[in-house]
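Batch manifest, entry 17 of 40.
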Amino acid sequence: MKKIVYTTMVALLLVACSKDDTGSGTGGGGESGGVTEVTPVTSDLTVNLTTDKACYRPGESVSFTADALPAGAKIRYRTMDKVVSEQAAVGTTWTWTAPATDYTGYLVDVYRTKENGTEVILGTIAVDVSSDWTRFPRYGFVDTFDASKKVDGVIEKEMAFLNRCHINGVQFQDWHNKHHWPLGGTREHLDAVYKDIANRDIYTQSVKDYIRIQHSFGMKAMFYNLCFGALDDAADDGVKEEWYIFKGTGHTDKDAHTLPDSWKSNIYLLDPGNAEWQAYIAQRNDDVYANLDFDGYQIDQLGNRGDRYDYKGNKVNLPKTYVSFIEAMKGKHPDKRLVMNAVSSYGASQIAGTGKVDFLYNEVWGDEADFTDLYTILKANHQYGNQALKTVFAAYMNYEKGSGEFNMPGILLTDAVMFALGGSHLELGGDHMLCSEYFPNTRLQMSDALKTAVVRYYDFMTAYQNLLRDGGEEEKVTLVCTDASKNLNLNTWPPQKSAITSFARRVNGKQVVHLLNFLSANSLSWRDLNGTMPEPRLVTKVPLKLNVAGKVSKVWVATPDAHAGASQELAFEQKDGAITFTLPSLKYWSMIVME
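Output type: C-alpha cells
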C-alpha cells in the first residue's frame, strides 16, 4: 500500500509566539567587549515537512517531502547549531545522504533571507541517524486490531503520524489471545479473528499489517505481555498448578488481578522464576515469533504484591525472579529485544542489572507524582544501567478528567520536564494519546493545537538528542534576570511555583541550561490529574546574567515553542566571570547552550 504522510497543522496556538520573537539579544561578545554580529531570526511556519522513516542508518538516503516551497527558499542541515550542509530548494521532494557519524540528531530547516538580512524559518523537521533504535528510544503504541483497521489507508495514516513524531519503537498492547497463550490459534493454524482479554475482536491480519507498515517506516514492533499471567482455562492449555504464586502458604488462594465480569477472565499470577513456566511461555513466544514478525517482547509486571508464596509455601522474591525470567527469555531468543516495566520503580535495579534489557521503562503512579520524582527515577536508572540505558516513562496524563480534550499546558509542561531531564514519554498511539493504563481508553482527545505542539516537541527531542539524552554531568548554575521590572523569580532545580527553574548539564564541552516555566503552575505534579494546569505566562526579551568558567565563544538558544525548534545565535558580553545576554522568549521550555 502507498504510504500516507501526516501533515502538521502549522500556524496554530503554540507557534503564535514565534512570530513575536525577532530579537537575538544585545551586547558585545568576549572579554574585550567587542560587538558580535548575529543574524536576526523570525518565523513564518508555512511549510510542512515529512521524511520517509523515523530513523536512519549512517549513509542511508533520507527522503523529504514538502507540501510547498516558495521561491528563494533554502534547505539547511544542522546538528545542534553546526551547519553540516546547505542547498537551494528545488521541487517539493528531495533526498539527503545521512552522514557517517552514528547516533546523531539533526534539524533540517527550510528558510529564506529577507532583504534586511533577517532569516525567516518556514518549516523544520528532525532526522535521527542511529543504527540502533534503543540508543534513543521514542516509544509509541497501538492497541486496536479490529475490522476498522482493515479499511485501506487507516493503518498507514496512523503510522504516518507516529513517523512524523519520529517514533522508532511501537508497543502492541491488548493484541493477544490469552496471557498464557498469546497467539490467536496455534503455530500451525492461526485464527483469522479471536478475542482479547476484554472480548474485543482481534484480526490477525491487522496485527500483521501494523508490523509490516511500521517496518516500512523503520520502526520496531514490540509485543506486550505479562511475565506471569494466565487465564482461568490455563490448565486446559498445559499450565500447571505448581507454577502459580499464592497469597498464603497453603497454595489455596492464587494471587490474581481482578477484571470486569464482562471480560474473558481474571488474570492469575505465576512464579516468574519457575523454570517450567519460563520454558512454557518461551515456547508460546516462539510460536508468536514464528508467525508474526515482532522485534521483541515488552514484559510487564504489576508492582509490589506484598508477601506472596510459591506452591511449596516458600516466600517469593519477585524482583529476583524477574532477573531469572529476563535471562530465560533472552536465552531462548537472543536476537530479540527485551524491555521490562518497573511499576512504581519496583524491581528497577534488578531489571537493569540483568544487562539483558535494551532500555528502562518506568510506569509512574501517584506514589511518584511529582516532577522531582521524575528526576529521582532518571538519576537512579542512570546508575542502575551503568550510564548506558535510556529511560522511557509510561505516565498517564489527566488521569481523572472524564471526557473532552487533553489539557495542552499539562501535557507540554510534563513533556518539557521529561525531555529536558533526559527521558522520553510513552504517550502517542496512531489514533489517540494515553490517558490511562488501559491503552484502548479513548475518553480524551488531542486537539489540533496539541497535535501540532507534540510534533514540535518530538522534533526537538530528536534533533537535540545529543544534548538531551547522550550523557553529560549535571551542574548547578547561577542565573539572574538583570531587569527587576520583569518581576521574574529564577531558581535552580527542583522546581518552584511562580518561578522559572533552571536545570544544567555540561555535555561534550558545552554548558547546556534548560529553563522550565512554572510561573503560572498550580501544581508541581506531572500528572495534571483533572486537566487544570494553566497555560504558562509567556516572557520575552529577558536580560540574563550567568556565571561561567572559562571563555565563551558562542551562545545560542532553541525551544520547541518558537521557530519550530530552529536554533538562533545570541549576542552576549563576557566580563568578570559571567556572561550577559537577552533570552528572546520562554513559553514552556527554552534551552540555552554556551560553547
